[in-house]
Amino acid sequence: MKLSTKNILLLLCLGGLFQACGVFFSPPAGVEYQSVIGEVTATEKDFKKLPKPQEPIVVGVYKFRDQTGQYKASATGANWSTAVPQGLTTILIKSLEDSKWFAPIERENIGNLLNERQIIRTTRQEYTNGQAKETLAPLLFAGILLEGGVISYDTNILTGGAGARYFGIGGSTEYRQDRITVYLRAVSTNSGKILKTIYTSKTILSQSVNASMFRYVDTERLMEAEVGVTNNEPVQMAVSEAINKAVYLLILEGIKDNVWNATNQDKSKADALLAEYTKEVAESTKRIPGKGDWDSNRRAKFSIGASVTANSLRGDYAPSTSQFGASGNFKYLFSDHFSLNAAYGYQNLSSDRYFKAQFTSLELDLEYLMLPFNNFTPYFSAGLGSFENITSKKGKIQLKSQFGAGLEYMVSPSVGIRGFGKYHVGFTDDWDEVISGKRNDHFLQFGMGVQVYLGK
Which parts form a coiled-coil structure per UniProt (predicted)? Predict the structure, then answer.
């Protein structure tokens, strides 16, 4: 059986596609085939900044519990796995050891310890005729008990995404933010007084990126392909970070109120950390759960930007070809979510063999930031503008409207990277110097750019 040229090309494309997708049969980050040392969290590194204690504090932890009673969310039905890890006491004890400020003693399974000590006594008495020369050392008792637990696990406090599809080819991105909350309190065993209570929280981020293609390559032949990556932050890591932060703040609070003290040599280090902690407490009062990190826009009111674009004319000539352009803009952010954006652009538009021209444009858009308090946010824009053909001697200024959507990621407090798509619709049908059909001329635009925020 002979294969036609079209079939051979189709088979080669499919082979190349499967070869390229073979990378995704294993995780992009690689597979760990051997046991490894657990990751060091960001809050665990804070312990290295702490001053040395005058003497490690003996503490006991009977039970640091999951008090949420929550199960993992499932879209397919009931899921009886808990949303929060159940070994919270072990995580807390590890955190206490790493801080070097506490000497934790075994209390979670104290019954096992007492039974083993009883076995040791009985064995010694039996094999020394009741005249044991060595006695067991007394158990340490805790001067402070640590109580508390994970008191909430809030799911989907922030969800969103963006996507686009054009002629069966497109992609999308989605994200979800959960939140875990930890309370930790120190109780004096001498008086039963609660010395300190600490409250910390940690967000858990899940992201996914997908791309797909769905096209008819022939009358009765359909070609479909898809690829995607999902990244879920481990809940155990988030819990560890929240507990480490609680222990770190508990130490600072104790130093602040003279519940315990650092060595005399490290008092200057303790004072510096307390000043930093006081500043963090003042900033935390501005935080709004579910709206991002802070109750102050990360972006300054005024900004300038530049971008490169790819334009595809939809006029009276076919087929159209993609041409490059560039634009610059000035933006004024007059509220948390809304801004005015003025832009000047230089665009090349053409159709294959029949038409090619250069245009300049002036645009004024109203822009809406969906998540103004986050580093990463989708945005939408719409507005009016003018368009002029600078190649033609008959060039005249014409009006148009435009609307679009995009994504912005703040790589620093003053610099954002933008990707966007826009649809420009003309009020006339003579952009390509031909009037034909029922629709006015228009063009599709995709671009990448940089936005620099001025001031604070």
Answer: none
